[in-house]
Backbone:
């Protein structure tokens, strides 16, 4: 076999510590919220051996859902804040495709992901434009779930925060509709998680820039020549 | 000029009620309106001095279940006083007058007591086809309502029909049944329910009489004293919910034990009403106590909110039996299959990709010499 040589890669610090913390806290919260939320909607039919005074498992599930929701909400707010003060990879401009180059990259990434063509040009070292835009849409869903969730929670809470969200109830026509949509959007999170995890692996593989490990250590890798080109 | 009206006490004294009956009524009324014990003298004073307001009770598109509920108020004196001694000047169902006499009663009240009478509206108003679906005395429901609403001291929407359209307003709503708050700019006190609880109805009327003001309303226009809590949070079966003990089918052991009806489609968790507190028929029972889930009759659009016996409704646009969970599961399976197929094709391309990298690396070597490191 002929001896061959790899291009030189440079390490680039892409994901700052707050971004990484946000990501893993968010991932944990989302998974917990999906599990507890699904159970609240469809309680298990086991646990019938005891009397009511001997167990509180459903209450614990609900409590977990509520506490996790608070963490999720404030974590989300923190990320929004970081979108204005963080480094260029964390900036809000990555999430909303306002530039023509971002739209070009969206089409390029769709070609690579769906048609599985070889990448013809280098994609952004941070979020690629399509990923960024999908995250923006998911932020809208985060906001929707937070609003509807707190609106539902307000009825059995004395705390102040949930009361700021009850305005959604008359708009949607009552708790029933709010609950229904809150439940339906749970499926967004399930599908998002599936596709997100797969695409991280896929892009890690086709780009070879350390996409998967970057969310742990923060570093990504870029060919020297690509950096020189910028 | 508005005519001078006798006070409450004067009116019932004339009818032969004793002072003791009167005071007893005042205490009950205080309880109904959620006023604490020290507030009772205030009520006595109000009923002794305030003129008894005339009441106009209009019936439009409805089934009269609100009236039926009302006359079953838990204490006879409450119903008695409200019906006989509240100056009920016009109500199609209960008035003795008929035809032109009845119409005259209505017009006299509106003309003689502007800004003083209380307007109670039972039923929705059809706004479609110029309102031909509900005509009384040759006039449309909306015309009658607008005339009565103009000078009313307070407007109360009795029941779900007047509050949110109820069954007539359910899809496809052929008559364009419209709740009254959409037809007037005046504040409307909504007392939803199909029917509303009798004691809640008398409670609202009592509040209007005693304070002469609109009770504190929530964001949907319902009196907070009766509609601020969910049936679920006041339900005596709530401990079973928190313990995760549910009725699984109507004839199982759990149903016999009186476990929570959540999984049988009970709408208690999304329904704001006082059923579990005041109960019905002199505090005898309420739906959940009788073993049936709440159907959410005091919530807007409850007829369109899916089957009564299932918690998750059909998802709009996907057939009557598809819930969001069915659709979500389906999409999830398709997604998983797509991911699997994608992974397979990616691996088929793998060899080519590795070869390509090798070639490019070799080319790099030609350009860069040995500086780039070896593999």
Residues:
């Amino acid at each position: 076999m002929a001896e061959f040589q790899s291009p030189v890669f440079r390490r680039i610090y892409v994901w700052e510590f707050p971004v990484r913390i946000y990501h893993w806290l968010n991932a944990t919260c989302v998974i917990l919220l999906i599990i507890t939320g699904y159970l609240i909607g469809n309680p298990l039919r086991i646990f019938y051996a005891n009397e009511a005074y001997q167990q509180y498992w459903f209450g614990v599930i609900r409590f977990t859902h509520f506490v996790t929701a608070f963490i999720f909400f404030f974590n989300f707010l923190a990320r929004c804040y970081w979108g204005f003060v963080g480094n260029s990879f964390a900036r809000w401009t990555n999430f909303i495709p306002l530039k023509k180059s971002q739209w070009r990259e969206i089409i390029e990434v769709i070609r690579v992901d769906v048609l599985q063509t070889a990448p013809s040009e280098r994609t952004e070292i941070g979020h690629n434009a399509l990923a960024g835009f999908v995250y923006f849409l998911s932020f809208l869903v985060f906001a929707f779930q937070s609003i509807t969730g707190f609106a539902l929670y307000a009825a059995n809470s004395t705390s102040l925060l949930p009361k700021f969200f009850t305005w959604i109830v008359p708009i949607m026509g009552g708790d029933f509709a709010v609950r229904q949509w809150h439940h339906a959007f749970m499926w967004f999170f399930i599908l998002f998680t599936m596709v997100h995890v797969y695409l991280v692996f896929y892009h890690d593989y086709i780009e070879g820039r350390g996409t998967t490990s970057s969310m742990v250590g923060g570093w990504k890798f870029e060919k020297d020549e690509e950096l020189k080109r910028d | 000029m508005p005519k001078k009206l006798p006070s409450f006490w004067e009116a019932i004294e004339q009818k032969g009620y004793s002072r003791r009956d009167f005071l007893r009524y005042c205490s009950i009324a205080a309880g109904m309106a959620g006023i604490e014990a020290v507030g009772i003298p205030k009520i006595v004073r109000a009923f002794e001095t305030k003129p008894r307001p005339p009441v106009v009770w209009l019936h439009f598109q409805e089934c009269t279940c609100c009236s039926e509920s009302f006359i079953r108020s838990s204490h006879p004196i409450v119903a008695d006083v409200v019906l006989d001694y509240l100056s009920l000047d016009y109500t199609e169902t209960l008035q003795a007058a008929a035809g032109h006499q009845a119409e005259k009663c209505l017009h006299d009240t509106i003309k003689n007591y502007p800004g003083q009478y209380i307007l109670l509206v039972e039923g929705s108003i059809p706004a479609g086809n110029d309102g031909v679906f509900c005509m009384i005395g040759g006039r449309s429901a909306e015309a009658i309502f607008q005339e009565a609403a103009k000078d009313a001291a307070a407007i109360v929407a009795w029941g779900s029909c007047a509050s949110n359209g109820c069954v007539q307003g359910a899809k496809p709503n052929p008559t364009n049944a419209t709740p009254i708050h959409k037809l007037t700019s005046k504040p409307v006190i909504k007392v939803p329910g199909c029917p509303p609880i009798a004691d809640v109805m008398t409670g609202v009327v009592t509040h209007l009489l005693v304070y002469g003001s609109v009770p504190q309303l929530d964001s949907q226009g319902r009196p907070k004293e009766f509609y601020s809590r969910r049936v679920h949070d006041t339900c005596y079966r709530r401990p079973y919910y928190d313990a995760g003990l549910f009725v699984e089918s109507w004839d199982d052991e759990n149903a016999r034990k009186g476990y929570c009806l959540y999984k049988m489609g009970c709408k208690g968790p999304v329904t704001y009403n006082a059923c579990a507190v005041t109960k019905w028929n002199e505090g005898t029972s309420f739906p959940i106590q009788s073993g049936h889930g709440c159907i959410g009759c005091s919530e807007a659009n409850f007829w369109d909110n899916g089957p009564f016996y299932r918690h998750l409704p059909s998802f709009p646009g996907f057939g009557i039996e598809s819930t969001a969970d069915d659709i979500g599961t389906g999409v999830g399976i398709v997604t998983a299959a797509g991911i699997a197929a994608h992974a397979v094709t990616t691996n088929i391309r793998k060899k080519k990709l590795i070869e390509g990298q090798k070639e490019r690396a070799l080319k790099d070597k030609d350009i860069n010499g040995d500086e780039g490191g070896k593999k």
